[in-house]
Backbone:
């Protein structure tokens, strides 16, 4: 089913969970956690012992709303060089994707990081825009590039978001009755464990920061189950070999120096206060939204919705699984994606389709 260096330890953990007679609904907010769950078969093992784990808004490409995709498409079609991560290239817009725009002649380039985008800008006189996408994990690299005297023809369209406000939105909306949250290891390595504490205080939700090996997830679930049994609600750190309470102060400082919190939409959510990262005014010369506001005005004045039938937004809130969407595996596949959850490698639909199991 899955491979572990210490199968004996894994069996002991699962036996302890089974003995607890659990009926838990948990949520994680990380595409890598979802991949581990599905790839290793832990999703069905957890269900066997009474634990249902939902994927929340842990895919940065998936939570980027349609309007921000349209902003980048508008710039590409206006002749601006767009640099973006590969996961974004096939996200459907109203009239095609960035891949489609590239096929039509737009200068759209896949990069592995913001440094690649800066290097492209240094080699050309054209305007180069980097689509800054991701949570606290990738925001420090964007910040570092902007603090390192980038060329005048380089700018960023910030689609960066922060995780804790989204968790507060999920808890406040109450659509899913959660008995615990598994917090992302990558994000937590940057911000630490303290930014999650308010959730346990305000909503009495047990939390565990977990790593990405199958045994990490087993231990994370066991730690949450113990908190529930003992009536506790606090933040515990299973991933202590990487994550520390204060995170990475230098990375957090870089984020604070370059960005300020903003109120932004997430796909599937209303506006979440303070969850966006907008460039500070002193860096507006490198802010693509300020630099190209005339080109972007038609996009800003229009409302955009999901592709008809796509239920990605509900999956990001944990109230629907991929298999419950009528488009999954039929009209919507990795070859013909209807929404970003089937495009991104961290998307719940892509992962579910990749590890799809035949019915017995």
Residues:
């Amino acid at each position: 089913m899955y491979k572990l260096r210490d199968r004996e330890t894994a069996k002991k953990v699962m036996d302890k969970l089974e003995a607890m007679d659990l009926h838990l609904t948990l949520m994680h907010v990380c595409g890598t956690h979802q991949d581990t769950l599905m790839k290793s078969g832990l999703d069905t093992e957890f269900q066997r012992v009474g634990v249902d784990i939902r994927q929340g808004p842990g895919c940065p490409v998936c939570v980027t709303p349609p309007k921000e995709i349209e902003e980048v498409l508008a710039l590409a079609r206006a002749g601006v060089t767009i640099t973006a991560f590969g996961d974004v290239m096939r996200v459907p817009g109203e009239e095609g994707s960035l891949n489609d725009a590239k096929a039509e002649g737009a200068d759209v380039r896949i990069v592995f990081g913001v440094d690649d985008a800066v290097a492209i800008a240094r080699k050309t006189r054209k305007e180069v825009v980097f689509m800054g996408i991701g949570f606290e994990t990738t925001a420090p690299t964007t910040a570092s590039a902007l603090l390192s005297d980038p060329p005048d023809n380089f700018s960023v369209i910030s689609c960066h978001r922060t995780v804790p406000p989204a968790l507060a939105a999920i808890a406040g909306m109450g659509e899913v009755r959660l008995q615990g949250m598994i917090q992302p290891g990558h994000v937590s390595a940057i911000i630490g464990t303290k930014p999650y504490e308010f959730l346990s205080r305000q909503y009495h939700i047990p939390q565990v920061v977990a790593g990405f090996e199958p045994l990490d997830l087993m231990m994370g679930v066991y730690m949450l189950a113990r908190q529930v049994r003992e009536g506790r609600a606090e933040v515990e750190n299973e991933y202590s070999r990487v994550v520390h309470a204060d995170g990475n102060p230098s990375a957090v400082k870089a984020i604070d120096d370059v960005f300020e919190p903003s109120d932004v939409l997430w796909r599937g959510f209303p506006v979440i206060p303070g969850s966006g990262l907008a460039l500070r005014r002193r860096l507006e010369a490198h802010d693509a939204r300020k630099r190209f506001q005339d080109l972007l005005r038609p996009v800003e004045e229009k409302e955009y919705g999901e592709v008809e039938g796509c239920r990605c937004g509900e999956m990001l809130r944990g109230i629907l699984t991929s298999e419950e969407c009528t488009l999954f595996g039929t009209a919507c596949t990795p070859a013909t994606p209807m929404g970003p959850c089937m495009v991104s490698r961290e998307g719940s639909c892509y992962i579910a389709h990749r590890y799809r199991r035949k019915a017995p």
Remarks:
- The chain is about 40% helix and 15% strand.
- The mean pLDDT is 94.
- The longest helix spans residues 214-230.
